[in-house]
Amino acid sequence: MTINIENKVVALAGLIAHGREEAFDYILGENTTKSAMEAITAAAAMLLLADHPILSVNGNVAALSPGELVELSNISGAGLEVNLFHRQPGREEAIDKVLRMNGAKTVLGIGAAASARIDEIYSDRRRVDPKGIFKADVVFVPLEDGDRTEGLVKMGKKVITVDLNPMSRTVQFANISIVDNFIRVMPLLISEVERLQKRDKVELEKIVSMFSNSKVLSDAMNVMKNRLGKLAEIGVFVELNTSM
Ligand code: ATP
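A: This is the predicted complex of the input protein with adenosine-5'-triphosphate.
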């Protein structure tokens, strides 16, 4: 499915976030960097270590990679919960339908099921499912805003995010930030969960404890800075792409 607003899966604000993403991806070079890969490995280990992991689904991620979200949920044991900034009529149901069409058996957070409230979050996103985000210890919250991440961290939850903007409030607050395009991240995250599935707890804990969020953010900014520097020197985008 493409990003469009006709079927209610994506909200208008989601289109703006998508456009911002494209600009950052251009600067990054439209590739998964070494440090993004480190973050993906740490995220896989954190999901496998969790007692009650949840994948939080908004309209953009449901439109971009619904099949992979369901697959990640199946192989990691994490629940799927729809959680939206804009809970306009019909949107939750539209996203629920997309996930179910891609094989999801259970989708949390739809309608009255989102009966718990998180005081640390302002906006419709404070409404969560008591069986999902409310009791989760690890929440995967890709393509989100900083308030939500900050609220979840304040509640004591571990937060994993995907965001191409290495300066966003989200990536600063999250425990593990993957600075990469969501559509490139999902297949890599699935294969890392598969690869690490049989490793023991001590090994997984070591991967998570060795991870530094500030280091991956600094690396992402350096990749962007160096690439822009080279672009500015050469001035010809096509030549740079073939020589890098
Ligand atoms: P913050 O409050 O964290 O500073 P924000 O107000 O910019 O963030 P949103 O408007 O919700 O938050 O933006 C969501 C973020 O998701 C943006 O930073 C955007 O770059 C990022 N994003 C959008 N699409 C993708 C994608 N496909 N892959 C990775 N990141 C994406």
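The chain is about 55% helix and 10% strand. The chain has a mean pLDDT of 92.
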